[in-house]
Amino acid sequence: MKFFIKAILFTTVLTSIxxxxxxxxxxxxxxxxxxxxxxxxxxxIKSDTxxxxxxxxxxxxxxxxxxxNIFYNYPEIKFELPxxxxxxxxxxxxxxxxxxxxxxxxxGVKGTFNLKPYxxxxxxxxxxxxxxxxxxxxxxxxxxxGTLTIPKTVGRHPxxxxxxxSGAQNRDEEIVGFKIFRxxxxxxxxxxxxxxxxxxxxxxxxxxTSVDSSTxxxxxxxxxxxxxxxxxxxxxxPTQIGLLGHSEGGIVAPLAATKYPDIAFIILMAGTGVxxxxxxxxxxxxxxxxxxxxxxxxNEATDYMNRLFKALETGEGMEELENIIKKQAAxxxxxxxxxxxxxxxxxxxxxxxxxxxxxxxxxxxxxxFFLEFDPKTALxxxxxxxxxxxxxxxxxxxxxxxxxxxxxxxxxAGNKNYEIKTFEKANHLFQEAITGSPSxxxxxxxxxxxxxxxxxxxxxxxxxxxxx
Length: 468
Fold this sequence. Notes:
Blueprint: E1 13-14, E2 26-32, E3 37-47, E4 50-57, E5 62-73, E6 76-81, E7 88-96, E8 99-106, E9 109-117, E10 130-139, E11 142-151, E12 157-163, E13 174-175, E14 178-179, H1 180-190, E15 194-198, H2 216-231, E16 236-246, H3 249-259, E17 266-269, H4 276-290, H5 295-314, H6 318-335, H7 338-341, H8 347-363, H9 365-372, H10 376-379, E18 386-391, H11 399-412, E19 418-423, H12 452-465
Parallel strand pairs: 1-5, 12-15, 12-16, 16-17, 17-18, 18-19
Antiparallel strand pairs: 2-3, 2-9, 3-4, 4-5, 5-6, 6-7, 7-8, 8-9, 10-11, 11-15, 13-14
Helix pairs in contact: 2-3, 4-5, 6-8
């Protein structure tokens, strides 16, 4: 399932004096941590009393967060972003007139940052060889906003609904700057296939129930309404509408197909074949190993996960787990250098926040369903053509764990038109990877492994051309 980024975050920054190289303008750059990078825009404003400013953190949708305690004495620049958790400290200097580099520190987490003069993005719109339309559809009180791309050729076209992975995602399923679904939609539509992609529940321009308070099964009904919307159009062939689901979307697609027989085909892009708790255990082990953790640490982590799953299932042992987490958080706090401790406002609040951040995701309605739902129960009823694709280096949905259960389930369904394909060197996002660890995602090219787009396009065209 799709790696889900939840990092420590910020809120506020700046004040002071000094002159030298011009600081008062808009800058853009990145915060670079060991596993992630965040795009930022910083706007410094000069007044008679010193400097003020704001910061945008793009991946988190955070805009105009006020900065505090700006100090500027060329070439040195310091500013802060206070938050309820821990103040974020930026300490850097001008490398040249157009580059600031320095260190980032927040709540014991260290990284680096860089800034360069902001360049207004003038989007030069390519004249697309297809039509692009903003659409809406509903499922109960949920209102979905999406983009439909349609070939310009006359007639009714085959179509695909794209289904995102876990967590609230926008219609492009954008992960660390890689607009996965936009790239897929563009390629498919250039090859004669209409594509509908939409913002998840209560995210982006969509409104309604949050993803955390919904279930994977709820998402299947969203997809069905998307298919019904496409069937209502006179430029879409109502008998040639299929689904492509990535990660958790690969669980949603079979669920939708079993509930709505009009769905013509499904593609499982790193879909799963076992329960969520089994997925989490193996991805934890695989990612930690790829990141160089010791076997002792890996066993410690998986033992904790097993105990947590049991406590959630039985209601017993949760208090003991909470005490373990508090103890670990306290020990981690005490191990921090004084400089890093100084960024944490209150030790007890810090420990409490660590406890909540560790446990909250596992107490949501979404997670409780995901942990126990067995995708095979839906796959065993799927009769339509099915393509299951895996990445050889995917450490979030491991091929060895999921390929066989998916194939066995499709055989049990009596499905005569299924195919399983593995892309060499591909990670969970189907980028060409080195180890497959999520820590690489941001550093890799924002493109699919060679042959990926062509393969899924040809597969769709093979089945839709047979029914035209």
